[in-house]
Amino acid sequence: MLIDTHCHLDAPEFSADRGAVIARARQAGVRSIVVPAVGVFDFQDARLAAQAVPGGAYALGIHPLFTPGAGEDDLRELERQVQASLDDPRFVAIGEIGLDYFVPELKTEAASRHQEWIYERQLALAQRCGLPVLLHVRRSQDRVLKYLRQFPGVGGIAHAFNGSRQQADMFVRQGCALGFGGAMTFGRAKQIRRLAQELDLDSIVLETDAPDLAPSWRVEPGTPLASVRNEPMEVAGVARSLAELRGLDVQQVVAATGATARRVLPRLDALLNNP
Description:
The radius of gyration is 17 Å and the shape is globular. It has 10 helices and 8 strands. β3, α3 and β4 (91-98) form a beta-alpha-beta unit. The two termini are 14 Å apart. It has an 8-stranded parallel beta sheet with strand order 1-2-3-4-5-6-7-8. It is an alpha/beta fold and 275 residues long. Helix content is 42%, strand content 14%. The longest helix has 21 residues, at 109-129.
């Protein structure tokens, strides 16, 4: 089953044609899309976007980029909404959560402590509720792992993975799959492509991160990547790219990555077993 495990379908970039975007994804063979929230302000938007997709699912969490404006009230509201969503079969994870040490404003001592505090609190919530997590790991793999290890039983997906082989293996040992998307389709992304070839296939899931991180075929030469809108339909091309890198039939990749997504997101598996 072809699954986009990370797509911000609720983003304003899709406001004008969300229905057409969903239709194109379905036509491309995408059978499930996971929509992660990024803050309290868009919990309902993420939920509604998932409801608009056959096989759509959503996650609730506070993204590290939005931690500067988040505090105790946001964490309380997150817990309230998580508890209220446990009876919703489309609710599958806590996310998008994690740490970001790429953005300069998040690297100061105060901002770093604050985002780590919010991340740790969300891991504790995931553990209490028996939920997996969708992890943001930009320039933060080791520190994300440091906190994750403190919460046994919490696994999920390390989204847009771009770490070392050693870090990849540590995430897998913690019960996480690794998300590969558009970045893997660029020849210059040598480390990502090498990991995509070498890792066990059952450790990999597919994603787009749409509307961000468009694949190579959507980016015209000289066009800034950030200006190109990605779509969930492109997860089909990501599957083909992974198959080419590994010398496999694309259906093998689709089947294996879909099975892995359903394994690390058990509520998604239950949803897709009972459409």
